[in-house]
Amino acid sequence: MVASIEATLELWAASLRDVKGRMRPLFTQDRVAASAGQFLDGLLGEERRKTGWMRAEAAGDRGPWRQQAILGRGRWDADALRDIVSGYVLEHLADEDAVLVVDETGFLKQGRSSCGVARQYTGSAGKITNCQIGVFAAYASRHGHAFIDRALYLPKTWTGDRERLKAAHVPDGIGFATKPALALAMIHRAIQAEVPFAWVAADSVYGVGEVEMALRRVGKGYVLGVNASSQFNSWIGKPEVAGTAAEIAEGLDPVAWQRLSAGTGTKGERLHDWAYLELADLEAAEYDEGRSGLWTRGLLIRRHLADGELAFFTTWCPAGTPVETLVRVEGHRWAIEDGFETAKNELGLDHNETRSWHGWHRHVSLVMLAFAMLAAIRREANGIDPRKRGVTTRAMVRR
Q1: Is 166 a domain residue?
Q2: pTM for this structure?
Q3: CA distance 282 to 104
Q4: Residues 270-290: what's their mean pLDDT?
Q5: What is the DSSP letter of 171?
């Protein structure tokens, strides 16, 4: 079932008015709020490059100065906009079984003045190159997915150079934080904001002890990637398992593997072979005296059907959770990958032309709002019965 053109356009117009209205209190002057609205219009426009000049042209301005002022000279709180985005996402996509997905993406840059830029590895380019790295949290539920948080990673070459930090207008008190530490801060913000979610999924950058312990203490399940060399051991009451993840996988009986789908992709079901080993049953009270119930620590292994490549995940879940659920949670990581691709290709996520700390966070937060609006429209449009709302068509909003 899909919406008519008329219904979709009505949704688009109403949603755009709504998100601009939510932004309005961030700005002290009407003209600045109007410029921010035009900035959002530019992100949602058809131009492939969302540069200041192109946004200005779309807004009817003679030059990009008003657009640039929104990111640089203006005085408004990007974190307040981040919180508006999070609240908006929850209004439309909230679900108690949702998965909070954490990942990073690179922003290729020239020179050395853009805040956080350095020669560092980014999966976006598949190599070490000159770039910024942003860590993001996406909210993925049965209703859709959208970004709810972000942080710019500052390498030690930046945090150890006070003059460089000052030149990029990095706020006082910002020091070095690892990517897992940035992710933990996002998880804690989500919990403090009472964001409903049951799981956290992430790749091996974030499959570290501090993240695991923090999630156990707050009663959240997880499926976190780990390296092949990570050590695993079973405890009393479970089948004996000891060794690295790779060694354990190599010694598995063929019957331990089962073919399961991690979700539907663009080419159909994303099928892999999976093996799951329960390693220990532990009381939730061991991590938080206010919680009760038995939880299981485990090792989940994924094998690619074509080349047999293996991936490994440390898991934590309520006792009795079936492997199908863990596979589904891991499969939600595609949501943030889809989000990065869509936000870069359609909304100009990587078209930020500013060099400052504030400029990066403002630009990214505005893109997050645009993406959230599209996710909300998509969910509502998919629920409209076209027989009641005009002539049917298969034209839909971009995902």
Answers
A1: yes
A2: 0.91
A3: 31
A4: 95
A5: P
Residue with the two structure tokens 């290729």 = 108
Burial class from Cβ neighbours inside 10 Å (0-12, 13-18, 19+) for residue 18 reads middle
Of the CA atoms within 13 Å of residue 194, those in its CB half-sphere come to 1
**CA nearest 89: which of 37, 11, 143?**
143
Structure tokens at 107: 């922003």
Residues 117-166 pLDDT 10s: 999 999 888 899 999 999 999 999 999 999 999 999 999 999 999 999 99
Decide if 94 is inside a domain: yes
Token reading at 316: 């934590």
Mean pLDDT, range 318-331, rounded to an integer: 97
Residue 47 CA neighbour count, 13 Å, CB half: 18
Looking at residue 113, what DSSP letter applies?
A: -
Q: Is residue 47 scored above 90 in pLDDT? A: no
Q: Which residues pair with 274 in a beta bridge?
A: 258, 302
- 195 within some domain: yes
Distance in angstroms (rounded) separating the CA atoms of residues 25 and 33: 8
Burial class from Cβ neighbours inside 10 Å (0-12, 13-18, 19+) for residue 158 reads: buried
Which pLDDT band holds residue 52 (cuts at 50, 70, 90)?
low
Range of the domain at 213: 79-340
Domain count, the chain: 1
Count the neighbouring beta carbons within 10 Å of the beta carbon of residue 394: 7
